[in-house]
């Protein structure tokens, strides 16, 4: 495989992750403040529905696919690291890294992001319920 192809794959994957992070920051800046009585419901919708869907499409879908020229294992590892970096704090990053590796492996073996979306949603539901 040509070196330029691997470089393009890395740049595309990093660019996708950066775009995701910047889009999240922009949305936070422009969305109105949620009233306190609706905050828990908004947090539930965000963490248990929107985030798992979008994160699976971005990290296991786009980034993992863009990184495939590096090799399947390397693509799984790269998307997992980028997924972990966007989570806060060392403990959150470590947990997200493991989850990213598991979800990326599932994506690689099934060829679909749907099983990962389901597991990611279930994980976030359990974390949300635990509080």
TrEMBL record:
One of its GO terms (molecular function) is hydrolase activity. Transmembrane segments: none annotated. Keywords: Hydrolase. The keyword Transport does not apply. This is CPBP family intramembrane glutamic endopeptidase. Its EC number is 3.4.-.-. Pfam families: Rce1-like (PF02517). Residues 41-126 form the CAAX prenyl protease 2/Lysostaphin resistance protein A-like domain. It comes from the Bacteria.
């Amino acid at each position: 495989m040509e070196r330029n192809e691997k470089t393009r794959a890395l740049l595309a994957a990093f660019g996708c992750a950066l775009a995701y992070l910047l889009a999240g920051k922009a949305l936070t800046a422009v969305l109105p403040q949620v009233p306190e009585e609706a905050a828990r419901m908004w947090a539930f919708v965000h963490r248990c529905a929107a985030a798992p869907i979008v994160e699976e499409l971005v990290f296991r879908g786009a980034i993992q696919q863009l990184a495939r020229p590096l090799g399947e294992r390397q693509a799984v590892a790269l998307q997992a690291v980028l997924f972990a970096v966007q989570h806060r704090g060392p403990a959150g990053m470590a947990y997200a890294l493991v989850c990213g590796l598991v979800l990326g492996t599932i994506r690689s073996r099934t060829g679909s992001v749907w099983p990962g979306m389901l597991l990611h949603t279930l994980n976030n539901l359990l974390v949300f319920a635990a509080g």
